Q: What sequence folds into this?
């Protein structure tokens, strides 16, 4: 059996339009690289090669919390060394903590001989999300593990459903270089919604999922509206309305906050439109003298993958 694996763990867009906490997808870039190795020591070891200030205490690092949840379920005392080369900035809204926790459980599961399927790893990775944000949501970790669009139909019991998407749908992500902690952006949300908003949001989620499955771009576009999180969270993101307007004017099907922000994503029906939308979105931040990074990617269908196997 291999003693070490080198893996790629993709960024993810959660809260797709109206799908707050229940709809996410994986993208090809950016993504983290993690080397997971077995160790004979008494505790896990975390090595931060990216210098982003990852917690090195195994009880506070999302990756080792997720691994311990899996080891506890398995009844194993195995310890691991995790070396992170993170390309997904913490606090960027594109699943940085999810890439770490999902990647860590995936890699350690491989080294233990794959006792769990990818689907079965989701609850363990969610423990990492709970450590990062106080909420065990699955809309980043599930697409990171499974690839593609993923619907969290239910949290109790957990019911994760992979949704087929149109073959050529593309995503533009613009990350303005500010950091928003998911925990903070969850606290500002209301804990109740009106019946009117619930009806609007349910209609749009159903429309979006139907549009994705049937490849109906008009329906996807008509359904990309969030009346619950976006109106509150958009105040945290400078130039939000202008960036969204720029994406839609460039031809994107829809545009919304990626996860808890500050990244903003747009979906487009082809690569050229996605490049145009990304460029125009980035220009808005440049004009406001806010540094930003733009990522253009098809939807990543594979999720976390092995780069090389080391033994
Ligand atoms: N659904 C989560 C949220 C995603 O919006 O808080 C962020 O990790």
A:
């Amino acid at each position: 059996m291999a003693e070490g694996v080198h893996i790629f763990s993709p960024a993810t867009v959660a809260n797709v339009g109206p799908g707050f906490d229940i709809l996410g997808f994986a993208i090809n870039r950016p993504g983290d690289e993690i080397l997971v190795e077995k160790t004979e020591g008494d505790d896990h070891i975390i090595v931060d090669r990216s210098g982003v200030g990852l917690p090195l205490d195994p009880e506070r690092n999302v990756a080792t919390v997720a691994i311990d949840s899996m080891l506890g379920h398995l009844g194993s005392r195995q310890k691991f060394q995790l070396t992170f080369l993170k390309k997904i900035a913490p606090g960027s809204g594109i699943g940085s903590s999810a890439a770490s926790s999902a990647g860590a459980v995936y890699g350690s599961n491989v080294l233990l001989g794959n006792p769990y399927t990818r689907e079965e790893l989701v609850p363990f990775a969610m423990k990492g999300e709970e450590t990062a944000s106080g909420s065990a949501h699955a809309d980043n970790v599930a697409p990171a593990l499974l690839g593609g669009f993923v619907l969290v139909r239910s949290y109790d019991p957990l019911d994760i459903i992979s949704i087929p998407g149109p073959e050529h749908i593309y995503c533009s992500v613009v990350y303005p270089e500010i950091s928003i902690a998911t925990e903070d952006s969850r606290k500002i949300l209301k804990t109740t919604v009106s019946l009117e908003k619930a009806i609007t949001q349910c209609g749009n989620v159903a429309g979006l999922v139907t549009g994705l499955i049937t490849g109906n771009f008009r329906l996807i576009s008509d359904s990309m509206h969030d009346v619950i999180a976006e109106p509150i969270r958009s105040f945290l993101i400078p130039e939000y309305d202008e960036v969204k307007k720029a994406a839609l004017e460039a031809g994107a099907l829809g545009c919304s906050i990626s996860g808890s922000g500050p990244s903003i994503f747009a979906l487009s029906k082809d690569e050229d439109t996605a490049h145009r939308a990304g460029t125009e979105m980035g220009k808005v931040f440049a004009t406001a003298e806010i540094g930003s990074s733009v990522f253009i990617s098809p939807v990543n269908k594979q999720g976390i993958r092995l780069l090389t196997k080391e033994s």
The chain has a mean pLDDT of 96. The radius of gyration is 19 Å.
